[in-house]
């Protein structure tokens, strides 16, 4: 019989069979699919999305899943079936959304470097809106739309210069960030957009950062945006929707992020009675605590100053600890009656920065399984083939069913698109 234990993943429990995600034993997943492997819970994905729908109630709004957080087709298809929109930042992400059954007319295209080919692709698909991030992008989009005899729906992503109080690498709304257009330039650019013949101004967007643990900075940014909306309306430029981005944080360790209800409540109050449709772009809060990375201990190594648990996952599989010093709980899959030892959980990559968890007290032996929790966002989507390592498999658990939603890469697939030079010897 399973019992609850303190885990940020709501569908993870401990039983006599070890850790279970929904009704599936992680040990069985490892035996069937090998390690390292990403494991996602459909119930957790659904519950996370439903929290937004409940909080929004009858308010006219669209919840767009941020594809960059987790771009697996299986995961995206869960959200497509729930009626989600999607926030994309590349042509590749648009292709993924459509392959997963997402609707193009619920796609918003963000990002600072959209190419002409990507603009053409998105216009051909008839996406909902382009979130334009520079004056030159505005002109380029008008040119591409003219060549196609189309009209591009646009919103300007404005930079409200609000400090989100988060890690500097995931802060996006300050004056020094590369994202968005300067707030002081926004009215001029809206006037230009309204004058261009192949653009249709339909909205405004802002996004101040990720892993937000307080709604106050987002409310401050929304107030600034609201003031701009009213100024534009005074000039005859009426906006149909307001895209307030994403960024709501999750619990990795001991954080206390607001609930979706608490995060959205002051924003909904701010826009109460207004006609604009609201759009949100959550990523981490939808997928982060719906997934984990399952890995096996290859070696236990004692050193003079540190002890190490060397596992078969590495920084190429989960980059967040090395990149952001991100913290992921490392949990023994099977309870062992052995003394705990303080170890750094590290991988086989040839870099000193290849660590997944540091200074953890674990009761493990060589061959045991570890689960690295809260890995459903920016885990597999940021993985690489560094050191010529095949990327992990991904599985999605649905009750008692387990679906392989991405097969493990093979050694041959790593160089399938490469070719060796012929010998230069006579």
Describe the structure.
It is a single chain. Helix content is 28%, strand content 25%. It starts with 11 loop residues before the first strand and ends in a 12-residue tail after the last helix. Strands 4, 14, 15, 16, 17, 18, 19, 20 and 21 form a nine-stranded mixed β-sheet that branches. Strands 5-6-7-8-9-11-12-13 form an eight-stranded parallel barrel, surrounded by five helices. Strands 1-2-3 form a three-stranded antiparallel β-sheet. It has twelve helices and 21 strands. Helix 2 (42-56) runs parallel beside helix 9 (260-270). It is α/β, with parallel strands linked by helices.
Key descriptive features of the protein:
nine-stranded mixed β-sheet; globular; eight-stranded parallel barrel; alpha/beta; 426 residues; 25% strand; 21 strands
Oligomeric state, counting identical vs distinct chains: single chain
Mean pLDDT: 94
Helix vs. strand class: alpha/beta
Number of strands: 21
Which shape, going by the Cα principal axes?
A: globular
So how many helices?
A: 12
Low-confidence stretches: 166-174
User: Approximately how much beta-strand content do the residues carry?
Assistant: 15-25%
Helix content: 25-40%
Radius of gyration: 23 Å
State the distance separating the first and last CA atoms. Answer: 71 Å
Main sheet record: 9 strands, mixed
Quick gist of this model?
With 426 residues, this protein is α/β, with parallel strands linked by helices.
Layout of strands and helices, then pairs:
Blueprint: E1 12-15, E2 18-21, E3 24-25, H1 26-33, E4 37-41, H2 42-56, E5 61-66, H3 73-81, E6 85-88, H4 91-99, E7 107-109, H5 116-125, E8 129-132, H6 135-148, E9 152-159, E10 181-182, H7 186-195, E11 199-205, H8 216-234, E12 241-243, H9 260-270, E13 277-280, H10 284-287, E14 291-302, E15 307-311, H11 320-324, E16 330-332, E17 341-346, E18 355-362, E19 369-372, E20 393-398, E21 401-406, H12 411-414
Parallel strand pairs: 4-20, 5-6, 5-13, 6-7, 7-8, 8-9, 9-10, 9-11, 11-12, 12-13, 15-17
Antiparallel strand pairs: 1-2, 2-3, 4-14, 14-15, 14-19, 16-19, 17-18, 20-21
């Amino acid at each position: 019989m399973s019992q609850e234990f303190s885990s940020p993943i709501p569908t993870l429990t401990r039983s006599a069979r070890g850790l279970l995600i929904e009704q599936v034993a992680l040990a069985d997943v490892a035996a069937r699919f090998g390690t390292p492997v990403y494991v996602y819970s459909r119930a957790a994905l659904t519950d996370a999305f439903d929290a937004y729908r409940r909080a929004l109630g009858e308010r006219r709004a669209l919840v767009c899943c941020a594809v960059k957080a987790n771009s697996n087709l299986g995961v995206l298809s869960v959200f497509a079936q729930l009626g989600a929109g999607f926030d994309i930042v590349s042509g590749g992400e648009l292709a993924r959304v459509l392959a997963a059954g997402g609707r193009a007319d619920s796609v918003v295209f963000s990002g600072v470097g959209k190419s002409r080919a990507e603009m053409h692709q998105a216009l051909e698909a008839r996406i909902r809106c382009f979130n334009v991030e520079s004056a030159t992008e505005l002109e380029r989009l008008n040119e591409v739309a003219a060549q196609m005899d189309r009209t591009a729906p646009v919103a300007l992503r404005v930079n409200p210069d609000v400090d989100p109080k988060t890690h500097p690498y995931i802060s996006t709304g300050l004056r020094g960030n590369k994202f968005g257009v300067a707030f002081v330039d926004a009215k001029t650019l809206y006037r230009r957009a309204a004058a261009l013949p192949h653009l249709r101004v339909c909205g405004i967007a802002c996004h101040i950062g990720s892993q937000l643990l307080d709604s106050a900075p987002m409310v401050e940014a929304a107030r600034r945006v609201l003031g701009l909306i009213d100024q534009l309306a005074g000039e005859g430029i009426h906006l149909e929707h307001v895209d307030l981005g994403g960024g709501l944080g999750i619990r990795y360790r001991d954080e206390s992020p607001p609930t979706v209800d608490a995060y959205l409540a002051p924003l909904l109050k701010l826009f109460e009675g207004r006609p604009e449709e609201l759009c949100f772009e959550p990523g981490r809060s939808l997928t982060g605590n719906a997934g984990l990375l399952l890995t096996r201990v290859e070696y236990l190594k004692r050193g003079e100053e540190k002890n190490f648990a060397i596992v078969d996952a590495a920084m190429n599989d989960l980059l967040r600890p090395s990149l952001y010093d991100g913290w992921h709980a490392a949990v023994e899959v099977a309870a062992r009656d052995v003394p705990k030892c303080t170890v750094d959980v590290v991988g086989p990559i040839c870099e000193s920065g290849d660590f997944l968890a540091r200074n953890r007290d674990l009761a493990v032996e060589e061959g045991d399984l570890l689960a690295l929790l809260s890995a459903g966002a920016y885990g597999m989507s940021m993985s690489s083939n560094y050191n010529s390592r095949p990327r992990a498999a991904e599985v999605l658990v649905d009750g008692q069913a387990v679906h392989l939603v991405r097969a493990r890469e093979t050694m041959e697939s790593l160089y399938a698109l490469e070719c060796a030079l012929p010998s230069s010897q006579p």
